[in-house]
Design brief:
Oligomer: heterodimer
CATH class of the largest domain in chain A: Alpha Beta
Radius of gyration of chain A: 24 Å
Number of strands of chain B: 18
Structural class of chain A: alpha/beta
Number of helices of chain B: 9
CATH architecture of the largest domain in chain A: 3-Layer(aba) Sandwich
CATH superfamily of the largest domain in chain A: HUPs
CATH architecture of the largest domain in chain B: 3-Layer(aba) Sandwich
Number of domains of chain A: 2
Helix content of chain A: 25-40%
Helix content of chain B: 25-40%
Strand order of the largest sheet of chain B: 7-11-6-1-4-5-12
CATH superfamily of the largest domain in chain B: HUPs
Amino acid sequence: MSFNIAVCIKPVPDPSHYDKITIHPVNKTITREGIPTIINPVDKNAIEAALQVKEKWGGKVTVITMAPPSAEENLREALAMGADEAVLLTDRAFAGADTWATSYTLAQGLKKIGHFDLIFTGTESADGATSQVPAQLAQWLKIAHLWNVQQFKITNKEELQAQMKIENGYIEYALKLPALLAVSRECNKPRYTTIMGVMKAKKKPLITYTADDLDLNKDFIGLKGSPTQPGDIYTPELGRKGQELTGEVEEIVAQLIQKLRAAGLNLESWNACAVGRE
Amino acid sequence: MNLKDYQGIWVIAEQMAGCLNSVSFELLGKAQELKKQLQTPEPVTAVLVGKDVEELAPELGAYGAEEIIVVDHPGLELYQNQTYAEVLADLIKEKKPSILLMGATGIGQDLAPILGVKVNTGVAAHCVDLRINQDNNLVAVVPAFGGKVLGDILCPKHRPQMATLKPGVLGKPERNNQAHYTITKYDPAESLKKDAGRVKALGIYRQEVKGVPLEEAEIVVAGGWGMGSKENWQLLEELASLLGGAVGCTRPPVDEKWVEGEHQMIGTSGKTVRPKVYIGAAISGATHHVCGMKDSGLVISINKDPKAPIFEVSDIRIVGDAKTILSKLIEEIKKIRGNVN
């Protein structure tokens, strides 16, 4: 028994640098200069999940992305982790796609490559974080899917069981294959790449498809094909005029207690939470 | 698609095991605001899906639903994405709402995008605000890059205009016990036949939450990586317990297992809180976290680094060691209570 597995990844600006992101005052575009582009962190959990399935059951792992040509570097990293093949969907016509148009393009890309028993994605991207592409992709492919998967177990070639995280708990499901799972960080611990992996990755196939290579409805792709359209962008005004408490620890804490009382906390009572009910 | 055929503001209410998710009330409050902004007011409708859920309808009425469409069927007892999507897609196609709102919850974030493809429309994800513009279209305000940037998202040529809203951002509207509402029943039998049964729910498992739930707490004591150890973390637990509040955190304490789980995380990929008092200890203030607490009442921050970004969004700044300050604060509060131990 073996599985044909696809993993969809997204190159994103490194989230540890988001404090540096600014909006260009004139062009009103996002400036992300000097921020490295990495594989979306939770997408590495998706790659790991695919590799573990392959190691246990046998099969092949294809990693795919719709991104600018520079994404080749990110795909090579996925190959270095252990994926067998990579596919880059890249075309200016894809630019500005919302989740609807992105998921459609990915679906057509996957159909072009072949049939997949299992598709893995991360739950959400660090930059846009809509978390909508996995569910929409499964919808275009007309296959079962589960989002926010914290754990899964393949029962046999036809079925798997998986847990979808919800607020304060989870729901357990049985899914018929082919299926798409959007995995969360808890699902596993992604492996690191090794020197050996990086060497091997250089020789693995990396195929590029443009819009003309795919069977696409041109009205469904890019910004033009997107039902949602972007309007203004702005930086939220978060600043507060803070007051610093200074002095020795005792003095600071004494002032802090005053401030808490002024905010309405009743510190004498065990029910300090009776805020604003005085 | 003739846009004029689409009328009304819908809220997909979320319930589980006979309990309504409070985000549904927040959505109804916002739906009523949007109604006032429309050129011609359109009715606010709640859609309630599940098994034996009709008794929850009056609660939705009290928070602003003028009509409640009840879709009650044994096959809808547990959330199954394909099953729910078949039913709701048919309902949308038949009744043609202009705006459709859902909670950006575990279930809402899964269901909304499926509907987007099924009914061929756009979905603005995890919005923090909504308004109607001069063209009478919905404008959804969506955070990106961990909340560093906000963007307006429109859906000008497709209907319904869909949006999911982050729970806890909008606040619950006033309850009106005298509200008038109508209940309409909808039979999903035909839609259920289309479900291929590829996704089958086996059961729900809930974690017990200790003390006050984070999103409802009026006092939040939050900590970050700088707390240093699980032992130091106990100070936050103790202070929260003394104040009758809840403990929140950033990502690292979850990874370090100082807290029970991700349900305690505040931020873009965690919860949004707006307590009356927020105390942040050893939190640097990355945008991901700030986005989830910026609407708190009084913000008090303690950090060793005078340049920590959290100070820019704080009312009270304390530059110092969180462990020392918190220990002393706990000691003093205990003294006030006449309990030195």
